[in-house]
Design goal:
2 domains, globular, Rossmann fold, 11% strand, alpha/beta, two-stranded antiparallel ribbon, 5-stranded parallel sheet
């Protein structure tokens, strides 16, 4: 009872505000973090989807693979993204990654989980979830891996094994966000590895790589290549946005 009283007093003196627009939250807020108005402004990716990267393709065309994917040799089998990296979601991801607001992962992972259910993605086919790892230097700076936060929620929701250390980052690369498309592929080359102790956990298994954003697909493609070279089977990718 005392705890409930204190919570009520704190909320009265310091009312919770939306993580985006900073307006006072009401009972309809998403996870007591984001107002319904801002949540409704998140732009969803709409079908039909490219059968490689998951981006929207023109309904009027008969192609199944987008022009970007035809130019690049992607090694993952297929990628999916529920949202567009724009507006409200772009701001939320920035706060999540760079402002130590790891608690936003609870709401952001919900978008991915709902997408899996809405489009009946074949999670029953997946043996393990692997988050894209950070280099130890970035991990020290950020104090958490945003991909792990998202991956944990997905693995828990669908009762899939989480292999947190299934992949490691062995090169401290420049930020992909600061590079042009062609530079991203060179920057990420040979930056991942699989420890010998984890090879048996990967051999012949179908994996779901989880990351926050897919842009060129270079990071996820390099990660998928490393996993397949270690014996993994099918590698799907799920990112929050593209």
């Amino acid at each position: 009872m005392a705890g409930l009283f204190m919570d009520g007093l704190i909320n009265m003196l310091l009312p919770k505000s939306c993580a985006v627009c900073r307006k006072k939250l009401n009972d309809n807020a998403i996870d007591s973090l984001i107002c319904q108005d801002c949540w409704g402004k998140i732009k969803n990716s709409a079908p039909p989807f490219c059968t490689r990267c998951g981006r929207h393709i023109d309904k009027s065309s008969n192609i199944k693979i987008c022009p970007r994917c035809r130019r690049n040799d992607l090694t993952f089998d297929r990628a999916f993204s529920p949202c567009l990296y724009d507006g409200v979601l772009k701001e939320l991801i920035h706060k999540f990654k760079y402002q130590n607001k790891d608690y936003l992962g609870r709401s952001l992972s919900r978008l991915m989980i709902d997408f899996i259910r809405d489009y009946e993605l074949p999670v029953g086919f997946i043996n393990a979830v692997i988050p894209i790892p950070l280099h130890e230097r970035k991990m020290r700076e950020r104090e958490f891996n945003q991909s792990l936060v998202l991956g944990e929620a997905i693995a828990k929701e669908f009762n899939i094994e989480l292999l947190e250390d299934g992949l490691c980052r062995v090169k401290d690369t420049a930020s992909q966000a600061d590079l042009a498309d062609k530079e991203r592929w060179a920057n990420i080359k040979d930056c991942f590895a699989v420890d010998m102790k984890n090879r048996n956990k990967l051999k012949g298994r179908n994996l779901l790589l989880v990351d926050d954003i897919l842009t060129t697909g270079a990071t996820c493609s390099e990660a998928a290549s490393t996993l397949k070279n270690a014996g993994a089977g099918v590698v799907f990718v799920l990112t929050l946005a593209h």
